[in-house]
Amino acid sequence: MSRKFWWLTGLAAFAVVVIVVVVPSVVVTRQKQQNNQQAESNNPQQPPSTNNLGDPNTTSSTEVQLPAYAKATSPYANLTRIRTYNDIEKQKDRIFVIGDVHGCAAELKQLVQKINYNPDRDLIVLAGDLVYRGPDNVGVIRYAREIGAMCVRGNHDHVVVRFMTYELQHGPIDQDSKDTMPEGDVEDPLKFDDDHVDIVKNMTREDYDYLASCPLVIEFPTLNNSRVVHGGLDPSVESTVNNDPYWIVNMRNIHKGEPERTKSKGEHWADYWTRAQANETHPVNIYYGHDAGRGLDLEAVTFGTDSGCVYGKQLTALEMKTHNLTQVDCPEYSN
Ligand SMILES: *[C@@H]1O[C@H](CO)[C@@H](O)[C@H](O)[C@H]1NC(C)=O
Ligand SMILES: *[C@@H]1O[C@H](CO)[C@@H](O)[C@H](O)[C@H]1NC(C)=O
Ligand SMILES: *[C@@H]1O[C@H](CO)[C@@H](O)[C@H](O)[C@H]1NC(C)=O
Ligand SMILES: *[C@@H]1O[C@H](CO)[C@@H](O)[C@H](O)[C@H]1NC(C)=O
Ligand SMILES: *[C@@H]1O[C@H](CO)[C@@H](O)[C@H](O)[C@H]1NC(C)=O
Ligand SMILES: *[C@@H]1O[C@H](CO)[C@@H](O)[C@H](O)[C@H]1NC(C)=O
Ligand SMILES: [Mn+2]
Questions:
Q1: Where are the annotated segments for Disordered (predicted)?
Q2: pLDDT per residue over 233-245, tens digit each?
């Protein structure tokens, strides 16, 4: 998409206020106790241009205080924390959240046709994990960009972005190497022989720019106080921006007060969230993916949209204003 087109649509478009808070690219190691991190602001990334929402305003916030359990964020994360769109509900008739696509490009196209998507009227937000496990990973990225979909970053997207940022800076990754990528004290050190690198090898620079631009959190404050994330948010962390990026993309449960990857330990984070919002006049509604094990899970203020397409179940689009559901069936690509 050319810069010129960007500006033209931008000028023609609606007033959108976007707040972007960028994770410092300079932080290599951040120990648990060093939580008052002064972040450097680097270029906030722009979302794709084809959704007619205009060239958004971006603001870099420089202070990100992570919770005590936080580990280092990879210097290759190239992460936008939050992007905020006000009045989205006035600009778009229908706003769909689509759960984990995982490389199922054909099913995504089928679903987009089934909802009769019109980019002038409608918006699609992908709830993360666009890639991995499925048959056509770059196909999903390219189609998402083409239709002007927004996306949030999933755990598999995050791994792919980290590897590709490394490649862009250090040259091609040797997949036969047994080495670990040097990222400091991260929670999940990556080895160069990881199969996510197969996806990186298929990606163009444009594919990378799209995937890297997906923030951790998309906020629609005026649309019923809604947020979209991949994994979840910790209700005990005061501000959204202060959630540990690792856990926003990986959390399924909360166990002994801390986020947890598996759903066998502790309790669903969404239950904690629901209780924390119980007395709020305007509760924060969270739309998320990442939990094919629980499947479609629509509660009072939390909406799980990963219905396990890549595992032979369904791909789901949930419309945020009406909560109308549309699904397509998927063949089993993974088990
Ligand atoms: C960006 O912010 C400025 C100042 O707040 C405002 O005048 C302008 O309309 C905004 N542009 C968009 C596209 O929201
Ligand atoms: C990479 O692209 C090739 C050729 O299209 C395809 O066969 C392969 O499955 C892709 N690999 C991944 C991991 O997406
Ligand atoms: C980070 O991603 C953006 C696209 O979102 C890209 O423009 C920028 O060059 C990337 N930065 C690095 C250090 O790779
Ligand atoms: C909500 O209100 C009830 C009744 O007043 C109270 O017991 C409960 O602790 C409150 N919950 C929160 C999360 O504030
Ligand atoms: C908006 O939030 C209110 C209060 O939480 C809820 O009653 C209503 O159903 C919500 N509407 C949608 C479309 O989510
Ligand atoms: C809900 O979605 C279905 C397609 O899945 C569509 O036929 C129907 O008109 C939609 N209903 C509303 C109220 O939007
Ligand atoms: Mn996931």
A1: 34-66
A2: 999 998 898 999 9
